[in-house]
Write a structure and sequence with these properties.
Deoxyribonuclease I, Chain A; 243 residues; six-stranded mixed sheet; 32% strand; 22% helix; 8 helices
């Protein structure tokens, strides 16, 4: 099972989509796309779904596949922007995928830290039964251990706190497991802040239950991705061996 996650940076038009579709994934998780973007992709994908709350923009998260049924989980709590649970299944497997694109405002436009959205979702009682099963969190987390000191100073959950909570449920990072590296020591950067290679960070992740056996992980390089023409994010590709 191959999953591609990508923050498409203000829209996912046909020019952008042709670059991402060449990776022939089983599931695509696209952040910062519009509902119209996903409607335009329906002609080549059997299953497509988009979620956005229109609180302060027209952008949201789109997921599409030709292999898996996709539906928004009924237990979805809208308080967490955007940490969206989708039920993914076919005749062989079923799991919950949280599409992630953390924002610095909640549904009431109240200022929150990026890490708080994930932390609150993972600690939400209504999701506890989900976290004990087969689950994947994938997308743009907008966080890294690099900023943990400032979060600690603000007395809000840090990136490390999130990782520790995931670990309690046996949910692990595909990238860090595959490359055997510590959080904060990533060699591949996924965000190139303000399109400047000198200000780049690793903030896009895939965390999954240990039952998903990691086959391959790849971050498409900045140069290969023709960065300035497409997005300030690089795609994250994760492959799992599944029964």
């Amino acid at each position: 099972m191959k999953i591609v996650s990508w923050n498409s940076h203000f829209g996912f038009d046909k020019n952008k989509s042709k670059y991402i579709l060449k990776y022939f994934a089983d599931i695509y998780v696209i952040q910062e796309c519009t509902k119209e973007d996903i409607e335009n992709i329906q002609e080549i994908f059997k299953y497509c779904i988009w979620y956005g709350d229109n609180v302060d923009s027209k952008y949201g998260i789109g997921i599409f596949s030709n292999v898996f049924n996709i539906e928004l989980l009924q237990e979805h709590n809208k308080d967490f922007r955007f940490v969206i649970p989708f039920k993914i299944n076919n005749q062989n497997i079923e799991f919950i995928l949280f599409g992630v694109w953390t924002k610095d405002k909640d549904k009431n436009n109240k200022k929150v830290e990026y890490t708080e959205q994930i932390w609150n979702a993972v600690n939400y009682n209504g999701y506890k039964y989900i976290l004990s099963g087969n689950v994947i969190f994938i997308g743009d987390f907008n966080s890294n251990n690099f900023w943990d000191k400032q979060y600690n100073n603000k007395k809000v959950p840090s990136h490390k706190d999130i990782i520790n909570k995931f670990n309690e449920y046996g949910i692990i990072s595909a990238y860090h497991t595959y490359f055997n590296c510590e959080n904060g020591q990533e060699k591949d950067k996924t965000l190139i802040w303000q399109m400047n290679k000198n200000t780049s960070f690793h903030i896009d992740y895939c965390f999954a239950s240990k039952g998903f056996i990691i086959k391959n992980v790849q971050v498409i390089s900045i140069d290969e991705w023709e960065l300035n023409k497409l997005s300030d994010h690089c795609p994250l590709i994760v492959e799992y061996n599944v029964e």
